[in-house]
Amino acid sequence: MNFPIDAVREKFPALSLTDKGRRRIYLDNPAGTQVPQAVADAVSRCLLTTNANLGGFFETTIAAQQIVDDAHAAMADFLGAASPQEIIIGANMTTLTYHMSRTLGCTMKPGDEIILTRMDHEGNVSPWLQLAEDLGLVVRWLPFDQQSWQIEEAALATLLTDRTRLVALNYASNLTGSINRVKALTRIAKQAGALVYVDAVQFAPHGLIDVRDIGCDFLICSAYKFFGPHMGILWGRLDVIDALKPHKCRCSSDALPERFELGTPQIELLAGLTAAVGHFEGLGKAAGERGSRRQKIAKAFEVSTAYENPLAQRLIDCLSDISGLIIHGITDPALVGERVPTVSFTVDGIVPETIVRQMNAENIFLWSGHNYAWEIVHQLGIPAEHGVVRIGIAHYNTAAEIDETLESVRRVIAMLRQERF
């Protein structure tokens, strides 16, 4: 089917906003996407009609509990979980990872080993580094291959020992866009007896996640990267999390997932989270899927990926034609399915921020910097204080926006080089 881009864009009020008559082009999506009207409506409706704490017997508290339950069920379908009990929802990915790292640390002892990658966002690095410092753990570093732009299975296998307790992996890079073969990497790590913690923040907006098929123990993502509110979602395999005892208040519930969800939940945001999953469900239904919510979500990713990938490849191909511009990531059209549509580049002799400032002034929204991909820029030898220019496509972007962005990149680089455009 032809992707219904006009119908999709109509669902996002922010896409029609202008500033002094100038349109906006949102290509800052790896840092956070815009939200459909349905998400904002769900948040507002919760605050206005079901605003109560949990655990009582009156109408609003009963309704609030249903919102909480619905959000966990929606995310179980989104991630392919066996049960809503496996879904832990909190403030954001980094906070949840710090919380889980401290919980897992109670099962570790000095001399135990953890493996971290040079490809991960800092939110899946610093919590484990600091845990290692606190407990006297050994950290082993897993680089990514600068030819494939992925973590290679052989490289992981060489680092695993009988002391390895955990491997923290990246599903897709927020800088290079590369997608790792997490299922194969997980299988190798599990054969060595290690737990596997997968950061899927950048993959979740662009591809179907199936935690049971991957075989990992934990997987985390962020709702505001897939058209939802600002919150993080951690899936934990039931037998693993059921054996863990997190730090919590003495009188709070010991049930799952409640014992991992500290304090009063952000109930209005949970309402928005369910609506964000509903966006994918609706897209799948519009594409002809009449099955379960999970099947509709799968169909949504099928059609959105088929729409996004050509846009990403057009962006890559045209950027590649600019003299002195280096794309840090997969550029081969035959391998476009092995990356998400996040494209980062540098230009010889030009500081990335100077490009981005000029393009932001044209109301083209994108980022420069290391974007918390701290280990990546260091492995690539890119000055961390400068980083890269990062352009990230979502399925509400259009071919016309990509063409206008490319024209801006060429014009800005020419201007900074004082060349005739």
Helix run count: 14
Percentage beta strand: 5-15%
Gap between N and C termini = 38 Å
What is the count of β-strands?
15
Order of helices and strands: HEEEHHEHEHEHEHEHEEHHHEEHEEHEH
> What is the residue-averaged pLDDT?
97
Helix content: 40-55%
Oligomer description:
single chain
- Unreliable segments of 5+ consecutive residues: none
Q: What integer value in Å does the Rg equal?
A: 22 Å
Broad shape: globular
Structural class: alpha/beta
Main beta sheet, described?
A: 7 strands, mixed
Strand order of the largest sheet: 4-10-9-8-7-5-6
What does this structure look like?
Keywords: Pyridoxal phosphate. It holds the Pfam family Aminotran_5. This is Cysteine desulfurase-like protein. InterPro entries: Aminotrans_V_dom (IPR000192), Cys_dSase-rel (IPR011340), PyrdxlP-dep_Trfase (IPR015424), PyrdxlP-dep_Trfase_major (IPR015421), PyrdxlP-dep_Trfase_small (IPR015422). It comes from Mesorhizobium onobrychidis. By secondary structure, the protein is of the alpha/beta class. 41% of the residues lie in helices and 14% in strands. It contains 14 helices and 15 strands. It has a seven-stranded mixed sheet with strand order 4-10-9-8-7-5-6, sandwiched between helices. Strands 11-12-15-14 form a four-stranded antiparallel sheet, with helices on one face. Strands 1-2 form a two-stranded antiparallel sheet. Helix 5 links the parallel strand 5 and strand 6. Helix 3 packs across helix 10 and helix 4 runs parallel beside helix 5. The chain is globular and about 70 Å long. The mean pLDDT is 97.
